[in-house]
Design a protein that fits this description.
Glutaredoxin, four-stranded mixed β-sheet
Length: about 180
């Protein structure tokens, strides 16, 4: 993430915390990010640097009608500062800040086959124990892994799959004298 995204996200977090509306702001900013993702035309419009920031702010104000005042003010400031085209990235950073503050860790768990609920709960329990945080795990299946799993938490990636082990072994065999 760019430093600017983090700065804006942190400012929103501080304002929402002071206002007592962190959870509402998180939900509303996530909705805005989803709307931008689903409307490439809108995101392209917001990214055009030649357009007047006030016009972008007006459009964003329409989109955020009914949102908490802290979110509406935040969106207006972001647009006025010429960062409206970066709202999705700022929203992602804001969500990460809220997750950290609330002791929540999001992980992506990819396995070679569909895990049963008991297996998934056991893995999530071990991650919670190791991290000391509550874990929200999304799961996916990639049969190409052959066996094992890949755990992705932010920029940390742990590849404990058979495919990963074979790739590391292949690299080691090629690079040895």
């Amino acid at each position: 993430m760019a430093a600017a995204h983090r700065i804006y996200a942190q400012a929103l977090y501080e304002a929402a915390k002071a206002d007592g509306s962190v959870d509402a702001a998180r939900d509303q900013v996530a909705e805005l990010a989803t709307a931008l993702e689903q409307s490439p035309e809108l995101e392209s419009f917001l990214a055009i640097p030649q357009l007047d920031p006030a016009s972008k702010a007006d459009v964003l104000e329409e989109i955020t009608t009914g949102a908490a005042s802290v979110v509406r003010n935040f969106v207006r400031v972001v647009a006025a500062k010429g960062r409206a085209g970066q709202l999705r990235q700022i929203a992602g950073e804001f969500e990460a800040i809220v997750d950290r503050a609330q002791g929540r860790l999001k992980v992506e768990l990819t396995t070679a086959y569909e895990l049963g609920e008991d297996e998934a709960k056991a893995i999530v329990g071990k991650i919670e124990e190791a991290s000391g945080r509550s874990v929200e795990a999304s799961r996916s299946v990639d049969p190409d892994l052959i066996g094992g799993m890949i755990l992705q938490a932010g920029s940390l990636r742990v590849d404990a799959s058979v495919r990963g082990r074979l790739a590391r072994l292949r690299t080691e065999l090629v690079t040895r004298n």
